[in-house]
Amino acid sequence: MRLVVNGVTHTLDLDPRTTVLDALREHLRLTGAKKGCDHGQCGSCTVLLDGRRVNSCLLLAVAHEDARITTIEGLGTEEEPHPVQRAFVEHDGFQCGYCTPGQICSAVGMLEEAARGWPSAVTSGSVVSEQRLDDAEVRERMSGNLCRCGAYPNIVDAIRSVQ
């Protein structure tokens, strides 16, 4: 099967039960996305699939042949980090760093959702206005990504600085 990861097409021979996360980590050696809970509850495995954030531990790779997958490794480079990556560093949006790749991928996807006007559970009205997301909006939209270290205030500050 073919997986398009970070703009590169890979042909892989996978067991049909292989998740996207395991294909990334074990077959492509892209270890940014982490296996936290393996139940889709913590968000440490978050990647972008055709631009939308997903828990890669819940997706079978065979169901996403030719989909565009973007991992933390594909968002930016060391020389030119993605604006969200840069903001996490500038705002100290991490402690141990285990959840950080998933947090960053989720933030990138979440900011795109908000830019498209998609509401959240705390959005007043039916669509997001042109105004910046407030702390409550960012917290709600990022609620699927857990941080055991409790770096949430800095994560919110980092995300809000990018929008």
Automatic annotation (TrEMBL):
InterPro entries given in the database record: 2Fe-2S-bd (IPR002888), 2Fe-2S-bd_dom_sf (IPR036884), 2Fe-2S_ferredoxin-like_sf (IPR036010), 2Fe-2S_ferredoxin-type (IPR001041), 2Fe2S_fd_BS (IPR006058), Aldehyde_Oxdr_Iron-Sulfur (IPR052914), Beta-grasp_dom_sf (IPR012675)
Residues in 2Fe-2S ferredoxin-type domain copies: 1-75
PROSITE patterns xref list: 2FE2S_FER_1 (PS00197), 2FE2S_FER_2 (PS51085)
Pfam families: Fer2, Fer2_2
Keyword Iron: yes
UniProt KW keywords: 2Fe-2S, Iron, Iron-sulfur, Metal-binding, Oxidoreductase
Keyword Translocase: no
One Gene Ontology MF term: metal ion binding
Pathway involvement of the protein, from the record: Alkaloid degradation; nicotine degradation
Protein name per the record: Aldehyde dehydrogenase iron-sulfur subunit
Organism: Virgisporangium ochraceum
